[in-house]
Automatic annotation (TrEMBL):
Residues 65-144 form the Gamma-butyrobetaine hydroxylase-like N-terminal domain. The lineage of its organism: Eukaryota, Metazoa, Chordata, Craniata, Vertebrata. GO terms for molecular function: gamma-butyrobetaine dioxygenase activity; iron ion binding. Pathway: Amine and polyamine biosynthesis; carnitine biosynthesis. This is gamma-butyrobetaine dioxygenase. GO terms for cellular component: mitochondrion. PANTHER family: GAMMA-BUTYROBETAINE DIOXYGENASE, GAMMA-BUTYROBETAINE HYDROXYLASE-RELATED. Belongs to the gamma-BBH/TMLD family. Keywords: Carnitine biosynthesis, Dioxygenase, Iron, Metal-binding, Oxidoreductase. Catalyzes the formation of L-carnitine from gamma-butyrobetaine. Its EC number is 1.14.11.1.
Amino acid sequence: MLSGLRRCLSASTSRRALWSLKSLGTPPFVSAPRFGHQTLATAPLPAVGGGGTSLAVRRARALAHERLLQVEWEDGSSSLYPFTWLRDNCQCPLCTLQSARARSLLLSDLDVHTGVDHVQLTENNKVSITWPDQHSSEYEPDWLKRRCFSPEARRARQEELFLNERTFWDSGLRIPTASFEEVLHDDKAALAWLQALRRVGIVYLKGAPVEQGQVAKLSKRIGYLRLTFYGHTWQVQDKPMANNVAYTSGKLSLHTDYPALHHPPGVQFLHCLQQACEGGESEVVDGFHMAEQLRREDPEAFSILSSLRVDFTDTGADYCDFCVQSKNRIIDVDSEGKVVRINYNNATRDSVLDLPVHKVQPFYTSLKSFVELMNRPENVVTYRMEPGDLVTFDNWRLLHGRRSYVSHPDYLRHLEGAYLDWDEVMSRLRILRKAVHGDAP
Ligand SMILES: [Zn+2]
């Protein structure tokens, strides 16, 4: 027992390739991403913060025939705004409930073919429009600028809202790392954590107290955690009559959590309370990077995995009894073909397979191709959690696994986990960004 304990303690001093979030300017890479995606260091992050970037309006005029307002900015550029959109988004107290920042104008009261009576610039450089019914609206230059309809402006605004540019990585990743306590108490540290969680997909927090309740505490830093059938938080331990393969000492192959739900949890927290003496190392791969690699190397497999919906199932009892079924694409793409989510857990992939019989073999061949790709040593990052370590990662993007471990009755490996959703995490990120950098309207 003592010798086992000593081995555990010495293991805890082993150094991993972690990258401190504080070492600003250091990209979290050893090797460069290969497929044209940007690293944190080179990504053209949209300007945040209202100060210094505002532009005055030089001229505003109605293009009556096109039913567009043309705004000329002092730098010579110009923007176009449809009359209907302007009327719909009148910011006056009759049309907007100021306390909720929500539209109170009803669509039934909106003339979607409205003209304008006249347009003028006010003394303080606002654009003022009088509508045919003599209702009048005023628009701040900054407010208009941020809602410009040009493709570039829309792209920049969407990126600022959703941070969808990702930094791809492989086994050379040095996992971004921050202090648990700092993230809890310092807005700048919390913002850096969530931005790296979004861009890189995984952030390691060090120094959490070695007692249960820390994942719940961390989720309160964001908002609230995501309740599932496994409870508000869950204990990953070797359990008799396990209701999940995670609750054994066996190897867990690379997977995302909970594809048996149609809306799987977006973010996962895992806090190490006790590590196994032997084995139990964690493995992660960048699923979005792997999907892009598959698209390039085996387009047929990519096409099959991103189009066929596969059945997943999860049955048992925990928080309460459950009988969950879903149909998910293993590689989920949006309407433009961009990979937005990986849904794959071999343990809960159902034996019910709702495919025409001739598509079954191609499906297996494709899945095998994807799994072999993600298991290549150059793609897998391995790390070993020690008590007090808390890993946070994107469960829509990363696949994670665990090496088998030796289960010792006096020294039980124990992780506590919790889920959150991306909507709540991104909400906190935007609020922190505003608190740290200020923000335009
Ligand atoms: Zn109004």
